[in-house]
Design goal:
Elements: E1 7-11, H1 16-27, E2 31-36, H2 46-51, E3 58-61, H3 67-77, E4 81-84, H4 91-96, H5 98-119, E5 124-130, H6 141-151, H7 177-196, E6 199-205, E7 208-209, H8 218-230, E8 236-239, E9 245-246, E10 249-250, H9 251-264, E11 270-273, E12 279-280, H10 281-291, E13 296-301, E14 307-309, E15 314-315, E16 318-319, E17 322-323, E18 326-327, H11 328-334, E19 347-351, E20 356-360, H12 378-381, H13 391-403, H14 405-418
Parallel strand pairs: 1-2, 1-4, 2-3, 4-5, 5-6, 6-11, 7-10, 8-20
Antiparallel strand pairs: 9-12, 13-14, 13-19, 15-18, 16-17, 19-20
């Protein structure tokens, strides 16, 4: 998409998504300004230097908590478009640090909107929402009853079962402070459109991954450990809930979606951006093992008799009324034919090479879980959005990133800093 001479301000430009978006906008002719916090050491953020765009971006110092800094950023950038990506986005950290999450995601968002309103400028503003806002999505009557036993109440009660795939009209049942903060932010965005006429739009993006994804996010936790296994640094994979299913998209698809929504979307409206497929954490692990060079033949639980041969065998049958390519094990998980619990003691993966153990780590399980995310993207497709990449493409890019010796050195050096945040789904 051409952005010749269009002025763009990105909050969160130094993050995983922000740096990819900035790179693409620069390549397509935009004049990009990026909001960054003051760095005492004067260094360039890692994601920016990795994309080699430090000289192509106009950096503006400021933070979401300081409205005067946001006003200065708007004065400096004079933006035609603002992409509001900055957030505390790691779900487990939001559970351990809810006030920090609220300060950045809630107060920070209203500060940005107020800065735009007070300056009486007229940019298009895109809010990066999240599929986590949907939270507890009901996939079957059996799951519904199980969740009611676990939580005592489900609100709002489903009007249809299954509630999948997830359309923009699905109810919100956020299951973390992060998800709740994003609900707050997007409702503010829509309110400022209706009340003050700001040109706000919301993109609810589903899980997006790729090379350079934060070390604490589950896809990087998986691909990093698979890389370490390949290099002989560890002897097993440690993970939490392998039944959780996510709508994983390649980061390049998601940043295309952001741009399409910003340029073609209806102000005040909401658009899902995802892949219209779902994949379990277990499948992500098994596909990562195969990407590292070992074909998976069978999986067995350690403390029970659950066995699945050829778990990655392709299955294209309909689930929730949608035909999409998935693995045999995902078909079984999605239809409640099988699930894996802590009591199973982990999984032994039999390959054409070594057997690989998957250990279930209780510390990696969330206190309140989102069981499944699976997007309906028919609305954004009408604007021209297309899914170009498969899950295996994401895995390939992540493993190649971790196999690069320089990146693996950076990872090792940052382990102590990130270890406290590596409790994932």
């Amino acid at each position: 998409m051409e952005w010749d001479d269009i002025r763009v301000l990105i909050t969160g430009v130094s993050g995983f998504v922000g740096s990819y978006l900035a790179r693409d906008l620069v390549d397509n002719g935009a004049c990009v300004y990026g909001l960054v916090r003051r760095r005492a050491d004067g260094t360039i953020p890692k994601n920016i230097s990795h994309k080699k765009i430090e000289k192509a971006i106009n950096f503006v110092e400021g933070s979401l908590e300081d409205i005067s800094g946001l006003v200065h950023a708007i004065d400096t950038a004079e933006p035609d478009y603002i992409f509001h990506l900055a957030a505390q986005s790691f779900v487990p950290r939001s559970i351990s640090h809810p006030l920090e999450t609220a300060q950045i995601n809630c107060i920070g968002t209203i500060n940005l909107l107020e800065a735009v309103r007070q300056k009486e400028v007229d940019p298009v503003i895109l809010f990066a929402g999240t599929s986590e806002e949907y939270g507890l999505v009901i996939s079957s009557e059996k799951q519904h009853e199980s969740l009611k036993q676990k939580y005592g109440t489900i609100f709002p009660e489903p009007v249809r079962i299954p509630e999948l795939p997830i359309s923009e009209s699905n109810p919100f049942r956020p299951m973390s402070p992060y998800a709740a903060s994003k609900v707050y932010g997007e409702i503010l965005f829509r309110n400022y459109y209706h009340t003050y006429g700001l040109k706000g739009l919301v993109s609810r993006s589903f899980n997006h991954e790729g090379a350079g994804r934060g070390d604490q996010f589950v896809t990087s936790v998986i691909t990093r450990q698979v890389t370490q296994l390949k290099c002989g640094e560890i002897d097993q994979i440690s993970i939490g809930n392998v039944n959780a299913c996510r709508d994983w998209s390649h980061i390049d698809d998601i940043i295309d979606g952001y741009q399409i929504v910003a340029r073609k979307g209806q102000y005040g409206d909401v658009y899902n951006v995802g892949s219209n497929r779902t994949c379990s954490v277990l499948s992500y692990i098994l596909m990562s093992i195969e990407a590292s060079g070992h074909k998976v033949h069978e999986i067995n639980t350690n403390c029970s008799d659950k066995t699945v041969t050829d778990p990655l065998e392709s299955d294209k049958s309909r689930v929730f009324g949608v035909e999409f390519e998935k693995s045999k094990i995902d078909q079984m998980i999605l239809t409640d034919e099988i699930s894996f619990d802590i009591e199973d003691g982990g999984i032994l993966v039999r390959t054409d090479g070594p057997d690989i153990r998957i250990r279930f780590d209780p510390d990696r399980f969330r206190p309140s879980e989102v069981p499944i995310l699976f997007s309906d993207i028919s609305k954004v497709k009408k604007l021209g959005y297309q899914v170009r990449y498969q899950v295996r493409d994401i895995i390939r890019d992540q493993i190649n990133f971790f196999m690069d010796s320089k990146n693996r050195c950076l990872l090792t050096c940052s382990d102590d800093e990130n270890r406290s945040q590596e409790k994932t789904i």
